[in-house]
Amino acid sequence: MTLLPLTILLLLYIPNTRTFWDIIWSCTATLFACTWTAVHPNIPGLDEGKFIVSSRRLGFMIAAFVSPELMIIWATIQFLSACDTAKAFNDAFGWTVTHGFFAWMGGFMLYVNGKPRATLTPKELEHFVHEGFVDMPVIAEADIKDRSKGDALSKGIAVLQLMWFVVQLVARYVQNLPITLLELDTLAVAVLTGIAYGFWWKKPKDAGRPHAVYWKATASLPSDLAYEYVVNIFA
Fold it and tell me: What is the pTM of this model?
């Protein structure tokens, strides 16, 4: 069956009447699928539990509902930063945009004397490698992607839900049936989160652990780190 007969069949199948809860369920499912798939949080801190991580992700999703334009700005800034970092490391180490994203999302943890000291920024990592304080971390793009938890199934479900939602709206427009403002708002948010997802396409999704970078014993101890990690009180 070609796409045209299938589309016509779907248009004819769209019911003329819907209940209030049908509209709520359709919009809620679409919004949840789009925002859950689109949001790409940074790597959590070593001392952050599941509750904090889940709460932060929920906050990002609420922000996407309320102001999806801010998510696009956030994703754009991260994309441009990742491109700059990849360019800075590309000549000597063959980094890609995925490496750049991984560095900016807290992907490299500095260990001093076998204990975590700080999450390194790309500038700090570049400086320490250049000065010989640490060895350049060797991690392939495939290994970074392997840490990502964004599988094809979750992405496929989100795409199918969005496609079905759009087909319903198109069918109602063709048949001169009413479309609610909630559905139009849902479509707008879905489109905007899709744009943000495009900028985050190369960013690992829900990576849980950073890559260890070990400070050389012959080098003096580091100071003034941007993201100092407080070692536990029993150390």
Answer: 0.80
